[in-house]
């Protein structure tokens, strides 16, 4: 006896409450949000993702300490900072030159609140407390930079963020009370946790790899979340999104804060990699390098930041073998110009175009056509 028949027989005064019939299968329990998210994540995994994961995990076991530390770890740390710019520019439409400034600010805060060679300035807090404070303050600074620049668009946003970066560079260079002037801070090494020294090449590589993977999957999830979808809508048509009731300014400032958090983590990893922080780390050249890395890989792909970082680090280390030491930047500039001219979407855009061409060339003639 179904629900509708029972309701019809009950009638008035029978004490039976009419219950509408449910469609078949509606009584099954819906999967929990966490389970549904894991199912979507597993369905998005492809064979190439597993191959890349196997490669990056097994890389330090076959590479020398030089390639593990100076090539692998440095590329991942720079890629994490470039990922913050890729998120802002590719999905928010806001090209900021201050991402290295945020990363450098986090590094300075780590040196000031933690331990360094300058005992007169450094407060000597525990490394984990100094790390949390440094990342939090850098995120707040990034949100402040966003609050200043989100009311502009295009070249004006670039100029405002460049002005902020240059101002911080001169502040760090000329202030000796807090930032120790031109000398900066040295002897800022990664911690030792449970007997594991992260100053060694292999442990430090896996530390940077864990942070890079976390940042990559966080961005991949965020751009599919309601916030990321709204941010992309604001990028395409801010007036329409404003008319639909979205707070354009708040979304953009929040995007700067998210990007600042990623850049701050990358800045902490870079200061642990270098062992020091100085005004030259946050100069105009360093800010332009992050833009070059993001454009090399492709601003529309989160993985492009790491691809561009690998190419940049390889050129930076081995271009000296091709030209004089004073002119190796010409090689980096030439590669950058060639990629931009042939593929505005960077190396990943070039690779996708090549895949489409190869797929079209191997497709049999007549397949997919409509025969009348």
TrEMBL record:
Q: Which PANTHER family match?
A: ABC TRANSPORTER ATP-BINDING PROTEIN, HIGH-AFFINITY BRANCHED-CHAIN AMINO ACID TRANSPORT SYSTEM PERMEASE
- Topology of the protein relative to the lipid bilayer: Multi-pass membrane protein
Has keyword Transmembrane helix?
Answer: yes
What are the protein's UniProt keywords?
Cell membrane, Membrane, Transmembrane, Transmembrane helix
State if Transmembrane helix is listed as a keyword.
yes
Provenance organism? Variovorax ginsengisoli
**UniProt-annotated location(s):** Cell membrane
What residue intervals traverse the membrane?
A: 50-69, 75-95, 102-121, 127-148, 155-172, 202-219, 253-273, 279-296, 303-322, 328-351
Please report the name of this protein according to its UniProt entry. Answer: Branched-chain amino acid ABC transporter permease
The residue stretches assigned to a coiled coil in this entry are none
